[in-house]
Amino acid sequence: MRLLFCLFADSIGLLPDHLFRQMIELDKGRPASFTRKLRQLFAAMSTEGNSFGVHDIHWFNGGLFADDAVFDLSAADLGILSAAAALDWSSVEPAIFGTLFERSLDPGKRSQLGAHYTSKEDILLIVEPVVMAPLEARWLQVKAEALALVEAAAKQKGPAYAKLRAQMQEKLYAWLEELSSVRVLDPACGSGNFLYLAFRRMLDLWRDVYNFSGEHGLPTLLPHQVHPSQLYGIETNVYAHELASVVVWIGYLQWLNGNSMGWPTEPILRKLDNIQHRDAILARDANGKAIEAAWPEVDFIIGNPPFLGGKRLLTELGNSYVEDIFHVYAGRVPPEADLVTYWFEKARAQIEAGKSKRAGLLATQAIRAGANLQVLGRIAKSGGIFMAWSDRPWILDGADVRVSIVGFDNRSETGRCLDGLAVADINPNLSTDVNVALALRLRENAAICFMGTTKVGSFDLAPDVARVMLKAPLNPNGLPNSAVIHPWANGIDITRRPRGKFIIDFGTHCTEAEAALFEMPFEYLRKHVYPDRQMNNRESYRTKWWIHAEPRPELRARIAGLPRYIATSAVAKHRLFAWLGHEVLPDHRLFVFARSDDYFFGVLHSRLHQVWSLATCSWHGVGNDPTYNSSSCFETFALPWSPGHEPRGSPLVEAIAEAARELVEKRDAWLNPPGAPEVELSKRTLTNLYNTRPEWLADAHRKLDEAVFAAYGWPATLTDAEILERLLTLNHERAGFSAEP
């Protein structure tokens, strides 16, 4: 960090006469000599009034140069440093500078320089509307008032002229005092990129006032200046915490140099105590009890809080920490919510308490649905969302991720902007027009849609391994292995092609002794599942390691007597439904419906349910695929008739069933044409079919949609917005009799 800062300081003239570059070139073949001189230079930079050779050296300190410690460098190291010194570091982007620092300190991240890096463009999508828009509006107001005084003064002479000029100067100085008092917090600041860019834009605004003052003959030695001390940050990573201060100072010095503003008073690098190394959401009181972490009172809250799905909290953060945040934020953040929502809730609470004015935070698209949506609902209730980007590409650990950006306040902002377009309002799910977030879960839809079983371990078997076990002799209990080895399917078997995989399944209550009687399956699990389960945090997963982690007894009971059931992949590009036989055990990446009739299949595969599910689903972090959810997508969906109360013999019901059967028959014929070679079959998947959507498939769906519209008694020409509006109205009508909170 010191070497890189010296390269920057050398390039902008903070170190005189390019002495650092001269040191490198002079001693690049003599590492010991260079190390000795470098220690002397660092010592000179660490205290006031020092020199290095014939040169006076600025007092830097600020933490980065608190002492003269150096590392011993090799000749190879100096070769790298010499190559770096050939570059011009004066224009280095501080945000990238911080990322380079951060990666250099973490060997595991050195090959991922794009990982976790939020681009300048994405950061400004938050900084501009959240921080700069109100400040620039205020400056336009002040400037208009100042120009009015300029015009009035031009008509006056003597004392009257001087008085008006003094009023104008006083107005500008008052605005500068206001601007220099603005405080910005990033409660997950990392290496300070958000803070730096917000600070840079505030400096640009200060420069506008400086130029305005000079253009109108007023003093340019202004009494108030924008300063790094206006920035506040919270960060748990000790390196990133230190980096944030350095990045802000580099950006400040770069801006001063680029605008010919000279250098700040010494020490050049002042330690920014406002950037704190601590937890942003949890703290401890004097007795060690977990309490909510305090945030400073600021004007604006911005940032990119950590991405961590609700299901990974225990694994990544540990039982104790997760139990503490659940307790501290009970009633405010649902336990199933992603980690990022705690930052959203805290920012909301700060605004509600009058301790902040506006906030702008970045999250994955999952913020728009499920348990996360409840947090955005609280934001909309106590204030308002005035800006949002519902779907933006981003980079996380080298993978493309879809994110959402949300700006919110106490509803004082009257304008609304969604995905770059002005809108009347923004719903909690970051949509406009019909607010499907107001839909209620319907009791009539309960106990129909279920998530498949969650294994937590290698219970699944390749076809050849399963065949060996299935052909084995009877077990000591007189039962074949087929009693506990069943066909298995997950999302891939729906969206691509069935792989013929099997799974070992000891049900929901089988004891270890009973399971051991199935010799080959049990020993397979002992070898492939037991070791991993013993490392699991959950006691039940460790002690009942031979049973699926979440065996879903209610699901099993509901589909046990059915000849087949309906399944859809939780995450899929297209919302596809397929039939699975009763013998197939579904994985947790499938949502299954305990119905075996073609009518029900047809309604689910209709355009109406597709439109509703897309409006109520969440979005998978990697890529941009919708994620189905039983509670929000199905249990809120009002079918033509309450499930189980469809009119018997109705031609409307039969029309849907017939269209559904025809759709499945044609799809199956395309998927498995007689005599097709394996290489051809591998290309014939449901996803590929719906990617191309041939005319015969479009016709089959058109016939199905028309039958479903007729069952609702609605015209088939409805737009998506009109479909959502009618379904929401029907949802509320049904909920009036059977609403579930």
Topology, element by element:
Layout (H helix, E strand, L loop, with lengths): L1 H11 L6 H9 L3 H16 L3 E3 L2 E3 L17 H11 L8 H11 L15 H35 L3 H22 L4 E3 L6 H23 L15 E5 L2 H21 L16 E3 L4 E3 L5 E3 L7 E4 L9 H5 L1 H10 L11 H13 L5 E7 L5 H13 L1 E13 L2 E11 L7 E2 L2 E2 L18 E2 L6 E3 L8 E2 L1 H8 L14 E5 L1 H5 L6 E3 L7 H5 L2 H10 L1 H4 L5 H5 L9 H7 L4 E6 L8 E4 L3 E2 L3 E4 L4 H7 L2 H10 L1 E2 L6 E2 L2 H5 L16 H21 L6 H4 L4 H7 L2 H18 L7 H19 E2 L1
Parallel strand pairs: 3-4, 3-8, 4-5, 8-9, 10-12, 17-21
Antiparallel strand pairs: 1-2, 6-7, 9-11, 10-11, 12-13, 14-25, 15-22, 16-18, 17-18, 19-20, 19-22, 23-24
Walk me through the structure.
The chain has 5 domains: 2-91, no CATH class; 98-278, no CATH class; 281-297 and 304-432, no CATH class; 439-445 and 597-741, no CATH class; 449-594, no CATH class. β6 (282-284) and β7 form a beta hairpin. The chain is an alpha/beta fold. The strands form 7 sheets. Strands 5-4-3-8-9-11-10-12-13 form a 9-stranded mixed β-sheet, sandwiched between helices. The longest helix is centred in the N-terminal third of the chain and has 35 residues, at 120-154.
Note the gap between the termini.
Answer: 55 Å
Radius of gyration over alpha carbons?
32 Å
Helix percentage range: 40-55%
Please give the count of helices: 28
Total of domains: 5
Tell me the β content: 5-15%
* Structural class assignment: alpha/beta
Q: Average pLDDT across residues?
A: 90
Q: Biggest sheet: strands side by side, in what order?
A: 5-4-3-8-9-11-10-12-13
Q: List low-pLDDT spans.
A: 109-115, 737-741
